[in-house]
Model the fold of this input.
Amino acid sequence: MIHPVQTEQNAQSTADLSPLTSLQPAIIAIDGPAASGKSTVGFQLAQRTGFLFFDTGILYRAVTWAVLRAGVAPQDEAAVGRMAEQTIIDIGPAGNHNDGRQSSVMIEQQDVTWQIRTPEIDQNVSAIAANGLVRQALLAQQRRIALHYGHGRAAQPGIILVGRDIGTVVAPDAPLKIYLNATAEERARRRFHEQQARGKAVDYTRVLEDIYRRDKLDSERALAPLRPADDAIVIDTSTLSTDQVIERILAAARGKWG
Ligand code: CDP
Done:
């Protein structure tokens, strides 16, 4: 079960995009491989538009954390599926934590915000995400949240979902679909610097290997594989700044919503 909570950054009213959002669901779907810039771009885009930011990768990471903590074998499909159904994941504002987090992630009152970002989770999450029972359990929750926020039933004028299958499976009706990409080397460099900034001892070659491995698992899996939706705008972020990517998406959003 998932309880998203409005984040502080979304509380500020902004949105030159809000007036026309009632005409079609105000949903921006952002997909792409690991470290392609989805979360950074999605988070800042939310600040610019007032839309709620929802990083769906958190759910798969949180289930992976719960599975490993419980000592359940990741390959035990039924047991892992049950964990996805039963684990209560709360996503809320960063609050007073001044440690670079975009939101706080809680499982049973335990703050797991950083525990779900370790190399151990990186190594196991794609296998958990390929489990059909896990995807089924998390899909229903993501759709419920997307529709609630996308149809103006909350204070925010819309929602930005980031993940792997948002444009293709979770919200195929989203009027604006973005697919971010970058070379594996550039993405590994970004992930390497992120881990270093958090004081973790990391090896670039291992980060790169993990990126290759996860790309392969995510794009070759049978269920909801990573791929751009047919009508997605594909942006290669390898040589673009975050601001440049955001400006491109905002320009497309203005085109959609007036
Ligand atoms: O931040 P990073 O791009 O490394 O990963 P993430 O977005 O947190 O997602 C972690 C993993 O969850 C991905 O490698 C996918 O296996 C899975 N995932 C998915 O299958 N579908 C989504 N909508 C989001 C994540």
In short: The pocket of cytidine-5'-diphosphate is lined by residues 34-35, 39, 56-57, 60-61, 125-126, 129, 163-166, 214, 218 (CB under 6 Å). The mean pLDDT is 90. Residues 132-150 form the longest helix (19 residues).
